[in-house]
Amino acid sequence: MTHGNIGDIGTEVLLDVVDGVATVVLNRPAARNALNLAMCLALRDAFERLDSAADVRVVLLRASGPVFCAGADLKERTGRDAAWVRRRRQASFAAYEAIERCAKPVVALAHGAVVGSGGEIAMSCDFVVATTDTTFRFPEPHWGTVGATQRLQRVIGRHRAKELLFTNRIMAAAEAHQVGLVARLVEPDELDAAGVAVAAEIAKAPPLSVALTKQAVDLGAETDLDRGIRIEMAAIERNLADGGWQRGVADFSEATAARRDQEV
Asked: Which of 203, 221, 253 is the last residue of a domain?
């Protein structure tokens, strides 16, 4: 087991790297991991470091305590003026963007309540593994603000997003899985093991192939099919130039031969 060291980012967000798997932890359990300015800055810092960390293959994003994230820390805004609130909102957008743009695959491990900004954090990841007792809620309009209007509709569709935002209702894990907000559901006591397993699955693939696949999917989602195909072809060319595909083919051939030998 090897530990990586990419620097200290504070106590409200924890970061550790073991055997190529980075774990980022939302760590304000006493505040139900409500997102404050310090957490926004720490998340951005963590994911900007992870983006260029050569020893990291996969990132798991999880939370300490019984709640994934209770949304924005509204208490922090007491006595603040509009300019401060604006800067705070920009800091949260920068944090979400850093998660989203990280070249490494990022998997959210969600449990408990996922509210508002917590949903933005989860949706900024490449996909979400959640426990069966996880709930999602997007109360921004009911809190007198605007948020979750873009990622949510891209994940679950425009009409479903409006219904959740307008009504402030709680979405259970089973429904979140059905509409595509959650990729995998696991029992509450299986979340840690599921994270380890999915990280191991991803780490089997060549890092460049995964990074280029992530980039091609994300860029292609914002354009038409013709442009998307050109994006994929450019990614293929970059992968061919690297030569890593040859190692991937060799590994696949060896694995196939081993399975055949076992079947004989």
From this structure: 203
**40, 149: one domain:** yes
Question: 82: buried, middle or exposed (CB in 10 Å: 19+, 13-18, 0-12)?
Answer: exposed
pLDDT band for 242, please (50, 70, 90 cuts): confident
Asked if the model's pLDDT at residue 224 lies above 90, the reply is yes
Percent of the chain topping pLDDT 90: 82
In the predicted model, is pLDDT for residue 260 greater than 60?
no
What pTM was computed for the model?
Answer: 0.89
Q: Where are the beta strands (DSSP E) in 45-181?
A: 58-63, 106-110, 113-115, 127-131, 135-137, 171-172
Which long-range CB contacts under 8 A does 12-16 form with residues at least 24 apart?
12/36, 12/38, 12/39, 12/42, 13/39, 13/42, 13/43, 13/46, 14/64, 15/46, 15/49, 15/50
**How confident is the model at residue 243, as a pLDDT?**
73
The answer to whether residues 170 and 84 belong to one domain is yes
Helix (H) or strand (E) holding 23: strand 21-26
Strands 135-137 and 171-172: antiparallel
Q: Which amino acid is at 4?
A: G
Burial of 106 (0-12, 13-18, 19+ CB in 10 A): buried
Indicate the number of domains in the chain: 2
Distance, in Å, from the CA atom of 171 to the CA atom of 222, rounded to the nearest integer, reads 27
Residue burial 159-187, b: 16+ Cβ < 10 Å; e: rest: ebbeebbeeeeebebeebbeeebbbebbe
DSSP class of residue 150? S
The two three-digit tokens of residue 62, written as one number: 């999880």
Range of 90's domain? 3-203
